[in-house]
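Why TetR/AcrR family transcriptional regulator? Reviewers of the renewal asked for a concrete example.
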Amino acid sequence: MPPRRSQEERTRSTRSALTTAARELFTERGYAGVSTDEIVRAAGVTRGALYHHYADKQALFRDVFEQLEAEITAEITAAVAGSTDQLAAMAVGVQCFLDICQRPEVLRIGLTDAPAVLGWAAWREIEGRHGLGIITSMLSAAADEGMIPAGTSVPALSQLVLSAVIESALMIANGAGREPVQQALMTLLLGPVTK
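Here is what the prediction returned.
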């Protein structure tokens, strides 16, 4: 007879089953198109287990979004790691983000549903710890190197940059060509490149 799992292991296993199932369903059909009954069936757990771990479907969605944001942050951080040139790091970070945003789960969960489901304030608070955090860190380093005019509000600039990058990702996902959008975004962020 196998050893009994601890309560912590059961909790982790149940939460993982719920977030995995929900993530797949939310990616496929969006938050509004998925019922809690479908989620618990796909996860192989009971409704009681869902409501034991999450107050409601929105709380489960928030957990899924948090996990997705943590993965995106880790991927972008790895892509720009070790770069000593702030402009090059920003360009790599933007390109990496645009690549990531073409994934169906990121487009649907992160860019389309999250602001509407969680509300702007909650969405922005999560972004502040993840994507906005990376941008703020990079812009702070650029400011320290004198690349940003003195007196510029790095937090305000960071939010504007995040908005521009997200809008670019949405434009590309909705049929605008990747190359012209990326070029326009880089011109906006880094200024025109002279040859």
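The chain has a mean pLDDT of 90. This is the kind of structural detail the renewal will allow us to pursue systematically.
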